[in-house]
Amino acid sequence: MKCRGFTLIELLAVIVILAIIFLISAPIILNTVNKSKEEAEQESARSYVAVIKEKITKAMVEYPELKPNNTLNVEVNGTDDTSLKSWDCSNCGTTNKIEFNYKGPMPNKVNLTWSEGEITGYLKYPSNCFYIDESGNIKKITKSSENEAKKFCEI
User: C-alpha angle with apex 121: 124 to 35, nearest 5 degrees?
Assistant: First the structure.
């Protein structure tokens, strides 16, 4: 009587082949996930800055003392999606705050400055940290970035 089935060696060979396939594909999949997370956070940072620019531009109509060359610094109250954010115009002689709500992924830490119509500064998200330059470009801060950026991002 002959039994039909797989031998132990055949089963072990299949398991080894599957393990090799997993070891090859796992880093590729994890790299794809990390890259998409970074791209999503970068797009969120772009959206966050766009909302701030729009709100400040509208506020300039309401508050004539706000000028494009005033320096405004961000104040963040909390880090959840519904928290209230505001800009305090420190050198335009007003105590008014420009309030706005932003719904979307929130940065954990914000250090932005509005000066001469442009926003520059840093945004820290759970996985990545970004720098916004004078041209509005958003760049990821890495270990090779300048000291100020590394200090802000705690790298």
Answer: 40
Domain boundaries, the chain: 10-153
CA distances from 112 to 58, 61, 122, 140 (A): 18, 21, 6, 15
Q: How many angstroms separate the Cα of 132 from the Cα of each of 11, 33, 84, 137?
A: 55, 24, 22, 6
Single out the residue of 65, 48, 49, 71 nearest to residue 117, CA to CA. Answer: 71
Instruction: Report the SS3 class of residue 21.
Output: helix
Structure tokens at 26: 């796992």
CA distances from 38 to 19, 45, 91, 121, 124 (A): 29, 10, 35, 18, 12
Q: Closest by alpha carbon to 74, among 106, 119, 126?
A: 119
The 10s digit of each residue's pLDDT in 83-119 is: 345 555 655 555 556 666 777 788 888 888 777 778 8
Q: Please, which residues bridge with residue 113 across strands?
A: 73, 120
Of 127, 99, 129, 133, the C-alpha closest to 115 is 133
